Amino acid sequence: MLTEVTTSERHDYRLVPPAVVLWLGVLAGLLWTWWAALVGGLAAAGVAGALLWRWRRSRPRWFSGIAALLLAAVLLAGPLAVRLHDAQHDPLRALADRAAPAVLHVVAEERPKPVQSAGYAGQQAGARLVVIPATVRWAKVSGAAVETTARVVLLAPVQGWAALLPGQEVTAGGRLAPPRDADLTVAAVYVRGPPTDLGPVSWWQRAAEATRAALRGACSVLSEDAAGLLPGLVVGDTSGISPQVQREFTDAGLSHLTAVSGSNLAVVAGAVLLLLRALRVGPRLSAVVAGSALVGFVVLTGGEPSVLRAGVMGAVALLALALGRRRSVLPALAIAVCVLVVYDPAMAVNFGFALSVLATAGLVLLAPRWVEAMSTRGVPPGIAEGLAVPLAAFLVTAPVLAGMAGQVSVVSIAANVLAAPVVAPATVLGVVTAVLATFWPAAARLPALAAGPEAHWLLAVARHASRVPGAVLPWPGGWWGGVLALLAVGVLVVLLRRPRLRVGLALVLVCVLLVVVPVRVIAPGWPPRNWSMVACDVGQGDAEVLSTAEPGRAVVVDTGPEPGPVDECLARLGVDRVPLVVLSHLHADHISGLESVFDGRSVGAVAVGPGRMPAWAWRQVAQIAGRHGVPLLELELGRRLDWPGLSLEVIGPRYPGPQQERDDADGTNINNASVVLRAVTPAGRVLLTGDVELLAQGDLLAAGTDLHAEVLKVPHHGSRFSLPAFLSAVSPRLALISVGAGNSYGHPSRSTVDSLVAGGALVARTDTDGDAAVVTDNGGLAVVRRGK
Known about the structure:
By secondary structure, the protein is an alpha/beta fold. The protein is globular, with a radius of gyration of 30 Å. It is found in: Cell membrane.
């Protein structure tokens, strides 16, 4: 893009006002009411008509732009306002407010998008639902036919629905609900049961799906994370990307790399154009060939709205190139905005659309100027472009990203600068892999292996950037958060443009570096000195870390409901050697983070109790242990384990857990089969109880087990199923409750907390306190809360 537009050429802004009027008018109509679009269109038409009448004879250079503005205003006040009115008054919308049962025959518009969720009890972590935008063909609500062709969004089970392809017709039954997004969607449908009346799939969608499957197969020669990332970089297929990697890319400001956008198309078209330029092919033929490559890439990615959006923008840019008018890139972008908003008004509130438009505008308007300014100051052109491109993209997209994610990544610029050199090679090699994999799978492994180092570099950049202290700052979400971020960017630009204010801003940044960075990075307050145990904040689940006398070496008990949080907790504690991971029982909120414990650490063994249910959880634990080549041990009653500064003794369960799924419908028996550990640490005795409930607690009391401990890991996230006699027998000075904020289970129970407090215990909770560390302070016991 930077080679096509230079600062010596004046940009043509005549079509920018029509694009802005259409975009903002439809945006207002969707966020408020269709009347806003109507009034905005009429007002713009009045202004444009008055200007055309005034300058009808002189006809200045921008006269054609005013004529285009009038046309845009007429479209906004006419057909677009009517479409908004129809969507906002669709009969399904009123029925959705009443949660009416419905049967709908729809056409899928996009590939099903999985909704990732943390595991809990017998529910496995991962995707249990998929989201499918669709258009209604016919509908029956409460048995009565409803005339509508509106848009809905299906929330359907993964099983049976994940394989649906765009353009495929299907009948779905479920219950209506009001839509969450302010677009043309009139209802959400919570689908029950499998799809029925499945229609045929177009040949090109079948071919695209076969190619994506072949690409995933060819990438299997890479490591698990790299094999999942490469299809995401190439065709936006994120099905193989782990939740931990997704979180790291989001925190590092690199999540845009795994969504098909204009950048993917630019890389593909740019590679084709470079090849054609080397062959001395003319600009018009080059544009035709590159356009054909764009069409093929759109087919490969499934032809979804986001891809079509990027394809339209790439097509008009190629048209400007074919016509030999470099300064036509900005008008081409304006035309693309107008065409897309008129074709699909919902684009106006689409964050991806806003990101594409703003990023392209930033690369056209800002980056070339900054490259030229840096070059005149002696910065080499390659380095200048490497700095200017991500900086311009970040500056113009920061408001949208802040509103979309509800956070601001302060490491985004640095992460994108480090990632930029390998994105294009990885994408091109991925496309070559996809093409070869369709007819020569063996040969496709070579470009896949060649893309491996680039994928691993991106993974490393995202991981290290996301772990920088203060890498992510909270920010108000939604469109209002985006407006606030826009104001902040505007203030920053004003400060940077004025020399005196620029000096003041530099002084403020220096103060921040001298005050905040030493506190957060150089001399962090975490982990606290002399820590013996930490209850990690992993959400609605359990993960405890017990230190040994050797720095960096600790035992982990349970690993939380999803990969990522326990890994981050261990990284904060500086733990790189884990001699033993103990899984108290096999419920998802205790085992689902196991894989991430191995990330960058040596692990000696994984230990479990006598329970083997749920079966899927046992298989998962065995597979992870086998994949990493560590032994899988069973902890029998009375077993003792010793390390320098730490001793563990197994004191429960007194009886084995269920061996058949039917023996434990609600998970109570599995909870009661939790491994109960008594740990001896420099801070005193610690009782680790898993999720033991009333029966198992009674068994421990009846056996006369010595339960007294200075620290109690409260059973089952502080649920009400704790015997007062059990809590009294432990008589802890400190009670740690591992629980997720805002959970729907009522944890922790008020009665349990009150009983602990009445018994003289100090209570620390991960939902309000974050990581909680047990430390020795002048020979006594204390707790240090990291905070949220």
